Structures are given as structure tokens and as C-alpha cells.
Amino acid sequence: MSTKEKSLNFIEQIIEEDLANGLPQDKLRFRFPPEPNGYLHIGHASSICLNFGLGLDYNAPVNLRFDDTNPAKEEQEFVDAIKRDVEWLGYKWDQEVYASDYFQELYNWAILLIKKGKAYVDNLSAEEIAQQKGTPTQPGVNSPNRERSVEENLDLFERMKNGEFAEGAYILRAKIDMASPNMLMRDPIMYRIINASHHRTGADWKIYPMYDWAHGESDYIEQISHSFCTLEFLPHRELYDWFLDQIYDEEKVRPKQREFARRNLSHTVVSKRKLLQLVNEKHVTGWDDPRMSTISGMRRRGYTPTAIRNFADTIGIAKRTNLIDVSLLEFCVREDLNKITDRVMAVLDPVKLVITNYPEGQEEWLDAENNPEAEELTFRKIPFSRELYIEREDFKEDADKKFFRLTLGKEVRLKNAYIIKGESVVKDANGNITEIHATYDADSKSGSGTEASKRKVKGTIHWVSVPHAVEAEVRIYDRLFTHENPDGNKEVDFKEYINPDSLKVITGYVEPSLKTATNGDKFQFQRLGYFCVDRDTTAEKLVFNKTVGLRDTWAKVESKE
């Protein structure tokens, strides 16, 4: 890494300094430590890219460690989803490990702390503990149980482990300093009783370690060299180091905790608790709803791993929390999809176009290029006939000079096909246009090389042949929240900002080449945006999700408000 010609972020500078101060390169080891109590979101994606990216840059192993210390909230479903998301992003972990792997060792160390007079069993209630802890400006007072004898503490702690007490009856606390200016150092809880089945250890344990106790010690067991956390863990660093001090062996690598800022994304929430609310209260269809900020939701919507990694790389690592506009993520998605998707034709708001001088019953198959961005240009065949669907907005009966699509008396080109001229319209009893009649120039076929085919017209529109069209359900997604920072005002429930128009389901028509498209396939619907096949698709029914438009239209909406 040191030899790379690039400016280093502050985390890379920390690693470089440690290497310069004698840490052997082969002792570098990183970890990504999710809690399996929900699905991963875009904030986790940045942390994944950071830790696994460092692993790649330094040729160092990265552990995937599940912080499974609260069986009341954790499930195997979440473990499986997390593994799937990390793999989908393109990363491979060295060891798959769990905090629960270390329950016995953590317990043994807790016994050691009790014997050294540095931990004690307490039976104060949560309310009493909060009261005796004091305030940031007022020191706490010692628990009346702080001076229990070592023997009594050992007895009570073993009985807690054996399940003799109800939840909340007892806790194990570290004995540190009730007057510390850092509230977290005021005799923090190390263990609590939880009577719930653990997804890996079942009913083996009745007591479970707190995150602060399990985190640093797990890092130490795995010989993690650098433990990177988000900024809210900065006050926890002192406690992380205190716990390590109690068990550290100088012959081993001592983990170092350092913090970086969260990068919040506009028009989303990235709190697992709030995401769970959205799921449980049916504001969305599930954790992988394409409107969610979860990695699973973004995958289902059609985002690519490359786009998310590029986004994480673009926003970088910072020391201050800030709000990143979601338009930047959408730009990264658009940029990647432009390179990799085939261009196809679909009509989402159809009106029938009849080419009156095209022979009835005739059809022809025209050449259409798949992806002009691809290294090797390939083509497919698309059917053309007398009756077509075009977008309703691509025709105006009375148009001004700035309208370059189809209107009466003017010419446009049908993409990959012919030049046509609008002639007349058919309307229903309410005055709505039901058909547009046009004539075509038979010599103007695209790519034919004729003089007529080279004639310049100002507009090109897409179309789908009516007899060959494949009906599809199309889900048009918008921002889930109307406010750029729905979680920013603690006085307002974030759900107040849910966008009532975040999903519109319409029926569209697509060219027949898409009939065999399968779940996850991605396309650019020409002139409309990027779409992918949803997992709800069946042999009888195609379902597409709109991933992102061809350009950022939200900025225009916001500028008008």
C-alpha cells in the first residue's frame, strides 16, 4: 500500500504509521462485525467496502464476525441475509466467526475480573442504576453492592449462568470509576440475564455479554489489528481499552479501535430499528422492498455491486457525519448500468399508432443494436407492423416549435425503423385520443443506405409492435421519503415524511425479446430509464422494477418547491 501513488485517508494513515512503528505487515487483520438483528443497509455497505477494501489493499485477511450477543432480537434469517449481501458486493471473508464462539472464554475472563476485584454482581434495577450513575456534570455514587465479597460475587454469577434467576434480577458490572467524566466508565454492565433461545447455542446460556465487553475481547481473540467503528463508538474507546488491559498478553497483537463518521443518505433512514418499523407496520413489503435503503432492497431494485462500491469510494471516509445526497448514489448506478445493459423498447403509457399506408397483415424484423457502449456491438431482431404502441407523451395534436416528437403534419423517425408523418387522430366520446394515424416513407428504413434513410429529422421516438407486444407489470419507484432528512427532527415522527407516491404500478408493453427475461436481468428501456426483472416474475407474467431514470429528475422537482 505504501508504494501506491494515491493520497491516503486518515484510516490508511493510521495503518501506515503502525507499520512504520514496527507492526509486521503479516499481523494486519480487519473485521466486519454486524449484529444479526436486521438486514444490512447502505451505511453498512460503506463499512463493508472500507474493511474489505483495506484487506485487498494490504493483502490482509478480513473476518466476518457476527455480534450475536442478544438472542431476543437475533435470527438465523438475518445471518443468512448478511452473508448473502457481503458476497453480492463482491467480497470474501477469511473466517466466519461469531461472538457466541467465545462465550466460554468471555465467561472465564469475567470470573478472572471478579477474582481480581474488578467486577461485581449487582441487583439494582435499570432505573436505580441510571439514577446512581449521575450526570455528565455530576459524579455517580457507588452501588450498595459494589463491595460484595469475591466469594459472594462468584456464587451469584455462577447461579446467574445456571438460570436460577429471572431476567433483570442480577447483572454483572465492571468495577471502574463512578466519578469518571466518561459516563461509560461508571461501572458498566458486562452481563445480563436473557431467557431466550439463541440461534446458535440454543438454551446453553442464560447470561449474555454486553457489546462493550464482547467487542474488544473478540477482536483480541481473533488478533484483529485494527477495529474500525462509526463515530458514536468514540466514547466507548476508553472502555474498549480498559477491558483489553485486564487480559492483554504482550506477546500478542493488541487491537486498536478507531472511529470514522457515518455517511447518512438523503431521503432515507438507516436505523435498523426504524427499518424494522417500516417492515412490521407494512409501509413496505419487506426488508428487500426496492424502496428500502437495505442492500437487499437495492439489489432487488436493480442496483449493481459495482455501483455501490463506486459510491462508497466516491464519498470516502471522513471524521465528521454528513448527509450525502441520494442523487450521487443514483449517478453511480446510472453510470454502471449505462455500460452493461442492453437497450430495448418498452411503452409504459401507450397510445395506438396506425401506419395507414403500411400493408395490412405484413410484418418485418428489423435490426436493433443491443448496447452501443459494449466493446463488441451486437444486434437483435425486433418486429415491425402496421399497428404500434408509442408513448402518449410523444404525440401532441397541437404542438409548438420546441416539440420535436410526433405531431400532425411533421416527420419523426421511429427508432431502428422508418420516418413517419402524423396525419390525423381518432378520439373517443370524451375527446381523448385513442388512435394516431400516420404515413411512412418506405425508402427511409434505418441503416438501408438510401437517400431517404439519411434524411435528417429532429425527433426519434420508440415504439412496440402491437401484435407482438408482451404485456408487463411495471413498478415505478420514487423516494420513500419526501424530506431529505426524515430522521433529522426528533420532534417529528420520521414516518410523517413517507412519500404516498413512492410506488406506482402500471401495465406496459415490451418488445418480444424480453419474453424470456429472468429475475435480476437488467435493461435500459430506451428514453425511459433503467429497469430490472423482479423476482415476482412468472412464466405467465413479467414484472419489472424501475431502477433509476436516465437523468436526475428529482433535482428539478426540488428546485421548483
Automatic annotation (TrEMBL):
Assembly and interaction partners: Monomer.
Name by which UniProt lists this protein: Glutamine--tRNA ligase
InterPro entries in UniProt: aa-tRNA-synth_I_CS, Gln-tRNA-synth, Gln/Glu-tRNA_Ligase, Gln_tRNA_ligase_bac, Glu/Gln-tRNA-synth, Glu/Gln-tRNA-synth_Ib_cat-dom, Glu/Gln-tRNA-synth_Ib_codon-bd, Rbsml_bL25/Gln-tRNA_synth_N
Organism: Paenimyroides marinum
Binding site for L-glutamine: 67, 211
Top-level EC class: ligase
An example molecular function term from Gene Ontology annotations: ATP binding
Domain Glutamyl/glutaminyl-tRNA synthetase class Ib catalytic: 27-338
GO biological process: glutaminyl-tRNA aminoacylation; glutamyl-tRNA aminoacylation
Pfam family, one: tRNA-synt_1c
Transmembrane segment boundaries: none
Reaction it catalyzes: tRNA(Gln) + L-glutamine + ATP = L-glutaminyl-tRNA(Gln) + AMP + diphosphate
